[in-house]
Design a protein that fits this description.
single chain, mainly alpha, 2 domains, 8 helices, elongated
Length: about 200
């Protein structure tokens, strides 16, 4: 792939906006080139595999720090602290991530196998890293992975309700109660002490 330049970044930004506005399937290469202010030849120079390559770049740009959200909780002293830290980090950044990726929820059934694999890989990397952080507090790897799915699903579902479905505009969301409640329930599942 050619060196990343301002034009490369502009193509990714323009594509993300078009995908959010009119969907991945409905967006043509020609529309992307026009919105990015370049020719289709220039677009293919940066993205030899066309729209699929652009989608990968858009997903990378939209979800780059999903695993980075776990960095501040890497040294958590307990499972409860880890989940509270994750909840706080996700709420601080999660709304923006959900906004940037909301179109993927609607578009997912229309994505090709390669595009689905790209998204699945990113989500599975987040889950795997979260399971690794939970492992010191779990009885075994299987329990750590199950707890990672519970935490991931709970915070993702919460975000979908309050951000994607805009429940924020209809009520005062119980952010703190949700995060602390989830953290307490998960900690009670495994006990409070790290495994020997």
């Amino acid at each position: 792939m050619p060196k990343q330049t301002e034009l490369h970044d502009q193509i990714v930004r323009a594509s993300a906006e078009l995908f959010m506005k009119q969907s991945y399937a409905a967006t043509s290469i020609k529309q992307i080139a026009q919105a990015a202010g370049c020719t289709t030849a220039a677009l293919y120079y940066y993205f030899e595999d066309g729209k699929a390559g652009i989608l990968r770049a858009v997903i990378d740009k939209a979800m780059p720090d999903i695993a980075g959200l776990l960095q501040p909780v890497a040294g958590a002293a307990s499972l409860r602290d880890l989940i509270v830290g994750l909840g706080v980090a996700l709420w601080a950044e999660g709304e923006d991530i959900l906004r940037r990726t909301r179109w993927l929820m609607v578009e997912f059934p229309n994505l090709g196998e390669s595009e689905r694999r790209t998204l699945h890989t990113r989500l599975l990397q987040f889950h795997q890293r979260l399971a690794e952080l939970i492992l010191p507090f779990a009885a075994n790897r299987q329990q750590a992975e199950a707890l990672a799915w519970i935490a991931f699903s709970a915070v993702f579902g919460y975000g979908q309700l309050f951000v994607t479905l805009d429940l924020l505009s209809a009520c005062e969301p119980p952010h703190e109660a949700f995060v602390y409640g989830l953290a307490t329930m998960m900690a009670q599942t495994v006990g409070h002490a790290p495994r020997p």
